[in-house]
Amino acid sequence: MTHAHSVFHRQPLFSASMQAAGVLIFLNALLFLAKVAVGLAYNSLAVLSDAGNSLTDVVTSAIILLAVRETAKSPDVEHHFGHGRTEPLAAFTVAVLTCVLAAQVFREAVGRLVDGGEPLPGVAPLIVLAAVILTKSVIWVVADHMGRHHRSPAMIAAAMDAKMDVLISLMAMVGVVGVDIGLPWLDGVAALFIAAWIAHTGFSLGRANIEKLLGAVPDPSIVRIIRAKLNLLKKQNRIRNFHELRIHYVGSDIHIAVHVNVNRQLGLQASHDLDEDIQAILQGVPDVKHVALHMDPV
């Protein structure tokens, strides 16, 4: 007997996540304008590199907003399993844009170190960067909490991006301080470190989300939990064995397919009830959204 649990259920609306994404767009736009103004006024490559990062943040925040709205849609005739692939796709897009930014910052930093260029000392860049660090630290904490609470890859990506921004602004601050104490070359060096960190973060984020889009097996810890639940059913003599266990991501959701051996003397109603119980047990594992069982009477 084969039974697949229905997927036509209402997905929760992530209104809080959508509001957060809207706030991110507004804040990143303000930070971008402030950094550009100060970076140009003081000829600071470190601050301008940070401004480029904020411009990317505006674009990626808009992508996250659209992704969260799309993911919140219920399954429909054309998407029986919902729209769960949207968020990892959005997070991967963020990763690509991040790597493009890293290449641009690296090119500008090398040009500054080779050709020279005198950034101007001043307190305004330090004030702007301090404000950025404070703002992004708050965003980091809030987005991380919301991403974990809603199991949202896009919001987790936003948290990682905010964390990266804090570290980038700290590096930019080192370059600005270097200019203030008579070491202008630190401006270009800080920009190089910023480029390296941006590239590392973008690559890590992209690799994690492309795996989800390609239907990778979840983390081994999740696989162990699923196997443990099936083994417990076996120990309780509710099933005799299980085999052909397949677990993979469909977007940000986990799907399971498994064959279970059951007593051939079970009646139709008892088999149906057992099927429903097993699916409910497996769907209690975080991120598991769909379970397909094949009941083998033995």
Quick tags:
2 domains; Alpha-lytic protease prodomain-like; alpha+beta; elongated; disordered N terminus; Alpha-Beta Plaits; 298 residues; 4 strands; single chain
CATH architecture of the largest domain: Up-down Bundle
CATH topology of the largest domain: Alpha-lytic protease prodomain-like
Tell me, what is the CATH class of the largest domain?
Answer: Mainly Alpha
Task: Describe the global form.
Answer: elongated
The helix-and-strand class reads alpha+beta
Calculate Rg over CA atoms: 25 Å
Q: Give the proportion of residues in helices.
A: 55-70%
Strand content: 5-15%
Biggest β-sheet: strands ordered side by side in the sheet: 1-4-3-2
Q: Any idea what the CATH superfamily of the largest domain is called?
A: Cation efflux protein transmembrane domain
Distance, first to last CA: 12 Å
Question: Count the helices. How many?
Answer: 8
The chain-level mean pLDDT equals: 79
Uncertain residue ranges: 1-14
**Main sheet record:** 4 strands, mixed
Number of strands: 4
Structural domain count: 2
Q: Give helix and strand order, one letter per element, not per position.
A: EHHHHHHHEEHE
